[in-house]
Queue: 3 jobs
Job 1
Amino acid sequence: MTESTARHTPGTPCWVSLMVHGLGATQEFYGALFGWEFRPGPEQLGPYVRALLDDHEVAGIGQLPADRHLPVAWTPYLATDDADTTAETIRHCGGTVGVGPLDAGEAGRMAIGSDSVGAVFGVWQAAEHSGVSGAGRPGTPVWNELITHETASVGKFYSCLFEYQEEPVVSADFDYVTLQLDGRAVAGIHGVGDVLPREHGPHWMTYFEVEDVDEAVVRITELGGDLLRAPCDSANGRLATVADPEGAVFSVVRSAG
């Protein structure tokens, strides 16, 4: 299968996409790291490919125009039943819309915006393409987390946008909430205070499942990427934070259980 047809509850992260300057080199990096194969996708914003793993669509990578010097970063897309209405709600809740809403061929309708603290995310109204399929296996995105100064104000933005229930993680020195839909955690918000890197600002982090975090880190550096946070164990599994050769930051995780 190449088209995923299951619909996601509005607010569920359903896709991740990366816009880069060197599309070919980026395909080589992620293909070698995760075993992805690629086929062309909608090109409304320029050359674009979909990454496949065992014929399941798992991510998208697009080519930035040569004159656009934008930050290279993984962007999560949140499912919606109506991209136009959600775009208006983003503005109403204190965010901005930078791209769209626009049609992505027959695949669906999309918009890209920023939340109330400036973190970029997308919204996706599915038609023929509803998002990631085969999630949970190594090489697929398994979690998305907003890294920001503090959770309270931006949590209100996302709860205004979708029908999330916020569930704090109780810890004396850990500012973290999960965004839940129908009693299930679908994303997280991590407040890190002044530790937030100034060069990144508030941003979404995508976690990709791997079979062995330590081996993945070695492979990433061999392929020209960088280690930003060494592998460590957490309640949710072993993880590390890395960057690809163009500087796009992501995490690799071997989920617990």
Job 2
Amino acid sequence: MRHLQISNLSFIYPNSPEALFSDLNLTFSLGWNGLVGANGSGKTTLLKLIARKLSPTHGTISGNALVYYCEQKLDDLPEDFDSFSTAYDSRSFKIKNALKIEDAWLYRWESLSYGEKKRIQIAVALYSEPDVLLLDEPTNHLDIATKQTLIEALKGFHQTGILISHDRTFLDTLCNTTVIIKNHRLYKYKTPYSNAMLEFQKEQEALTRQIEDHNQKIKQLQKAIQQQKEKVSRSDSRLSKKRIDPHDRDAKEKINLAKLTGKDKNDAQRVHTLNSRYQQLDANKMRVEKEYKKGVVIEGGAHRHHASICIEGGNLTLSEEKVLHYPKLLIGDSDKIALVGDNGSGKSSFIKTLIPQLDRQELLYLPQEIDADLAAELFEAIRMLPNEKKGALFTFVTRLSSDPKSLLENTMPSPGELRKLLIAKALLDNIAAIILDEPTNHMDIDAITSLEEALKHYDGLLLVVSHDALFVRSVAKRVWSITREGEGVYRLREGGQASA
């Protein structure tokens, strides 16, 4: 199989006011292709269409007879799990070794960490030998070491791979082709993500200049049409006999002579020609993708000064087999702290223990995953907001690269869209502290860069747990690192560089 071909594809969800894709034509060749775009832009829908989990409204997809779709959620056992778990051939051992999968994992799926489940999911997919491998946000919750393990394993896949990810480093390392979804349109570049975004921005800037020139020509043409119409009007008035004395034979003869010699006879034709040119220019108007202003303005609690908080050192039991030791910690009012460490080292557990000790009434805590109850509370709170605050909320969401109207009308918002709404709603208050546990999970790249910019200028207390090295380096001034010291023993230390 040489390529995956999408031809004249259109898709619209039932009860949706407009099509998500219209007359889409796209080819995916061998190798890894990055698929990027804002939350709700249709990335996951496109993968489901390719995986035949959804059917196109119109059009066809060919080359997807043997396809494996690794979705974001890992609630259930992967498809074909039994075949892989009972296989003892050289290929299965090679895949397990590449992804560092322990045999015991195959017998305790429910108790595995997200990273362990993700590795098994991808191992099963690779063992199935598909022609097309689809990965939807495979790096969510994964530490740096596990991401690198995934990258090395996926480099060995030589068929057609399509990867949705918010992880810029992961995209640049693995993908040689990038497809950008913007306002229901797709742009394909045969280059990794960072270069593709530069090319896209340059194209948009050049197109903006062309549009400005195009619009200037239209204005000039409109002015010429108006002038020509006025000239025709004056000519018609001059050649009219209505105001001439019926007995003034000389004046009548002059008008007859003017009409006979064709004087001003091209004026009307000139108007027709100009109108035709205007209609052609107007019909060929170029379109530049609309860009919203980025960067969320966060009103911190700078006017309220709290004393620095001292957290006494101690031990935190993570499980029967694991314990986390942490030292005495001093936290300032405007500290920007990143908590980093491997999966399963106790970062989230430590954060939950820390929150009650912060003594902050106005605090935003964003957990790793937003459950249905929290989502329902969020939508009810938004519904009760006065119009002024709703407007502010819409501005926040817009600056996080989503359309707030369509997002609120969506009965099934994506996990990334829910995170945007939760952050935007919290930012309507004058919050004094922000605690974010893996904030970049599920969020699109535009939203991540907007959030980075906002957090740089935030003047309250910020504590983030993240495996996104670029995000950590961008927002953190201090780093707490959790490392493993022995079997089941972890220790939190102050210091180190802002890298995950």
Job 3
Amino acid sequence: MKLGVVGLPNVGKSTLFNAITQAGAECANYPFCTIEPNVGVVAVPDHRLAKLAALYDSQKVTPAVLEFVDIAGLVKGASQGEGLGNKFLSHIREVDAIVHVVRCFDDGNITHVDGKVDPVSDVETIDYELIFADMDTVARRVARIKNAAKSGDKKLLVELEAVEKIASLLEQGRPVRDMGLTPEEYAFVADLFLLTAKPVIYVANIGENDIGKEDNAHVSALKAIARKEGAEVIVLCAKVEEELAALSPEDHAMFAEEYGIKESGLDLLIKVGYKTLGLISFLTAGEKETRAWTITQGTKAPQAAGKIHTDFEKGFIRAEIVNWQDLLDCGSLNVAKERGLLRSEGKEYVMKDGDVVLFRFNV
């Protein structure tokens, strides 16, 4: 899973990025502090791995990983190249979902690019720049298909109708993710990697004094936007998250408790990211390695096997599966088998979160 962290300049993107990745992205009080995207890879916390590794006395434990990309601050006109915008927009095409950091605190010492804190205006600025960029991309596709469709090819005419519909809705200010497109319609533009087709997770960056309090007016405004879109909102203080991330585990726990912070920003983003993208993890366990693998909900056993190695999918025979908690309760795979908790599943089995699996294959 790759998440792109976006927002206007000086809203706390790089501060949040530092907190969740400890990658040391530069932070400063001026626009375009981030020019090239910073990339950080973090392990996905999973308490199941340590328990399974202890059961098998595994030599190695490999968690699933999450990649964060800190993309430079966008401004009005980014889609037309303002503020190095085109370069920054291209980085967004490579991510699975957008983490939109929105400033929800007042501080006269930190410059706002528009001179005032206004989450509604900030969100609109980013949204419209992404829409404008998509309009340009789709317009080029329309022109190409129109020229080819002069031959009278029925398939091209159907495609042209679908792409023109998308172009029209973009012109009305609607992002692709909210158009209600059929799978067939979206298939015509899937290879364009449209920016507004990506799901969005909003992060309300609040001030230190607002931690643990009722939502301020800025947060309430952002949540109202998210409700209309069916999007998730995470409320946190990026500055405090960054400070806590630099502490030892003991000090982190102590100060987090003082602030009333029950979950770290990283944990919240992982949880919401998996939910937003419809992801789950299955597990493999043994003496050599215990490992988590990330797949999309609804993935069938052969395709899950292919995540480990393409040969596993090509030569798939069956999957031997047991729930991770059942395996721990039994104490061994043999006991789980004796109790009828180890199942043999075929090609149509839909994987479940927490499945511990051994794939049988023959190539």
